[in-house]
Amino acid sequence: GQFANAMQLAILGELFSAEAASVVIQGDAAAALRTLRYRGILSHAATGATPIPGNSSLHQPISFTHTLLHRRLIDQLETTPTSPELLWKLCTTSLPLYSFQPFLLLAPIAPQLSISAQEAHSGVAAIVARTKGMNVAVLETGGRVLLECGRAVAQAFSSQWSSDQQQESELLLIATDLR
User: Fold this and answer.
1) Helix 84-92 crosses helix 117-129 at what angle (to 10 degrees)?
2) What pLDDT is attached to residue 78?
3) Shortest CA distance to 94 belongs to which of 132, 144, 56?
4) pTM of the predicted model, to two decimals?
5) According to the model, what pLDDT value does residue 77 have?
6) Cα gap 114→129, rounded to integer Å
7) Most buried of the four, 36, 96, 112, 175, by CB within 10 Å?
């Protein structure tokens, strides 16, 4: 129901795109978003929000109406685990994201991912690629979150990689850390 949809949306962060919402909500995402807006749980965000480098949204960003509500939903996620594969999809595709929340949630559960070693290797590169184009202020905080997420995935899967893949991934992480 509505609570389940709100919890799923919480993994996207306090501010999110309609495109990302359609990935996390089962069924008719547009109808679910309308209902949650009508109930006062969500609203269209003020303009001026910039997505994490990846893709821009075709729609106005959506936000939770209260920070405390979003925080409470995130706290609830600790008792209702999020699918690692869903977080993986959010973090490694070029969906417009406005928050680092999916990366923060994925890092500690990276070893639970049911993906191939090749997917993990490509995904680390995709996660780290989002740091390109970040300004220095965002890179300091958000870049660190992306880097830690990439490191967590690399640590969970590097034993399954070839030595070339291990070296390539390590160099990518080091080069990104030095920026």
Assistant:
1) 50
2) 75
3) 56
4) 0.91
5) 79
6) 22
7) 36
Query: Are residues 13 and 98 in contact, defined by beta-carbon separation less than 8 angstroms?
Result: yes
CB neighbourhood size of 171 (10 A): 10
Nearest alpha-carbon partner for 138 in 55, 57, 52: 52
What is the CB neighbour count within 10 angstroms for residue 44?
13
Taking the C-alpha atoms of residue 53 and residue 100, their distance in angstroms, rounded to an integer, is 11
Mean pLDDT of the chain: 90
| C-alpha dist (Å) from residue 93 to 57, 105, 131 | 13, 16, 14
- Give alpha helix (H) positions in 46-162: 67-77, 84-92, 101-106, 117-129, 136-138, 144-157
Sequence-distant (≥ 6) Cβ neighbours of residue 47 within 8 angstroms: 60
Whole-angstrom distance, CA of residue 168 vs CA of residue 89:
22
Q: What does the DSSP 8-state code read for residue 69?
A: H
pLDDT in tens, 93-130: 989 999 999 999 999 999 999 999 999 999 999 999 98
Task: Work out the average pLDDT over 28-38.
Answer: 94
pLDDT at 122: 96
Please count the helices (runs of H) and the strands (runs of E) in the chain.
Answer: 10, 3
